[in-house]
Amino acid sequence: MGNQHGGQKALKKQELKKLVETTHFDIEEIRKLFEQFKGISSSREDDGVIDKQEFQNALGLKDSLFVDRMFSLFDEDNDGTIDFREFICGLSVFCEKGTIDEKLKFSFRIYDFDNDGCIDKEELFKLLEAIVQNSLGIPQEQLHSLVDATFAEADTDGDGKISFEEYRVLVTKHPAMIGNMTITTNVKRNTGAAQ
Amino acid sequence: MRASGLLSVTPSTPMSPAAHLNDEQKKSLIKRVQSVDGFRITAPLEKNQTLPFVGIADATSSFFTTDKEQVWTDDLRVEIEDHIISRLRASGQDSFNIFSDLLPVVVEGVDAVVKDSFTESFRPRAPDAWNWNIFLFFTWTLGVIVRYLVLFPMRFLFLLLGTLIFILVNLILLLVPPSKGKDAFFRKLLNVWSSVWLYSLSAVIKYHNAPPPRRPNQIFVSNHTSLIDFIVLTEHCGVATVGQKHPGLVGFLQNKVIAPLRNIWFERFESRDRSLVAKRIKDHINDTTNPPLLIFPEGVCVNNEYCVMFKKGVFEIDDVEICPIAIKYNKTFSDPYWSSKDESFVGHIMRLMKSWCLVADVWFLEPEKKGKKESPIDFASRIQKMISAKAGLVNLSWDGYLKYYAPSDRLRNERQKIVANQLKRRFGHLFVEEEEEQKEKKEEPQSDKKNE
Fold it and tell me: Could you tell me if residue A186 is inside a domain?
């Protein structure tokens, strides 16, 4: 089997331990997710990391702003690739055991493109446009109105931007929103022993 | 979409198909249904390509999929889709602001990246690459040359020669009148031909234990990876099979050539008549001069890491003795999983010939009979567990035919409608304002007139 070489081909014990400590997964789950990670990261180029193209294929979508946002959600250090640690840390937030705070911070990053700690109107508008994609023929002015309406509700100090605190207040008004930010990774195996 | 809140929507009635599944299986099935339609990471698998002995793999157990079981699969599909639709509708109510609208889309995207066990069981596993440095790469290239230019032609010619001789001897045999001696000779011949196949694939098969002594009412049951399973077992102990009658050349082969094998052939319409099927099988297995019957209850080929649900048809026969066989291939040397969507049978054989060799373990397990209080479904499930435990496979309770699932138009349409309505509701107030403005404008001249 291949060893450590550039990207990751195998899980080191030490790394496994660290991941178990820092994320909500247990050893079995991390191992299983590593298999899946390998599957995605080797789909185009077997370099042990997921690049934008491979990520796009895994999502099954065409290139778009939405894919960019999803990608940068996982790619914390912004080096253009998702390595296994980033992959696991990203998924850990979506785990059932993920805390509300983690989910809050993570979801905030979806909207905050430039990572300046605030969501401004342009960013929200662009994201909305990317997801809606003219599917209902909604003209831009109305999208702008919608963004304005949202800001009116959320931007309590009126500085034209939604800070993390304002976002948090907005979400706590409707906690169901973040509570639903959960996916299950069914990794329970019931293998018998082969003799 | 969030799988966590899903199961709370509609409780299953006792008669519903989904009641057979546990929570985790339901979640996984729902996710699979969603992923096929939404963020597609796995394309829906298409039906088997046809080949001369059309779908022996499927036919051997598909005869036991009666209308009732097919209806079960359809019902299950409808029920799952209903779940999804009602939950889509419910979540549409959770629309508080833009953020709550956009979040589900993101969650669904992430969900798509995490794969589910059902699709995994039909995905061919890519082997680990070991040629990553200059020295190993050289060795690997050497290996490729040997495999493709030396081994492959040798094997191919060997198989060709063996098959030609087999056909020749068969033609000669056709002239000989049928007799017991002829049958025995033919079976020997078939045995030799299977050996030819196995040699040409450089198969190293280790048989553990022995097939049970021939008794009436026996049926051999095994997990299914490829048609190669059939050859592996035929070589060791001649087996008969169940299949569909075909016209033409294939029919000729069925009726005249391999007749001594005493296979059971059905017309397609006959297979619907369960009592007829059951009777013919019973007659066959009761006669100990017939070779034992081999059935693959999974109904489809699986990638030899998993074992999908055994269909209960065979297990329902009165007083039947099931002899389980577990087959496990060693994937280090070759990948014997035949994904009929990806390759034809010929392509499959060619690929195996270009690998080093075919290594397999075959375990003959203790014959079992159905317990007095055991239902056929439980019996089938018990045998499935026995086989997957021995071969080290992961046991799944999927109906293998769900491999061919494609989302119905109903689901697609409903989904689009719901998303559209959700967005309209979000933007609805903007449209309403415009409409009201227009109404006011229309009413003004009228009210002026009234005033005058």
Answer: no
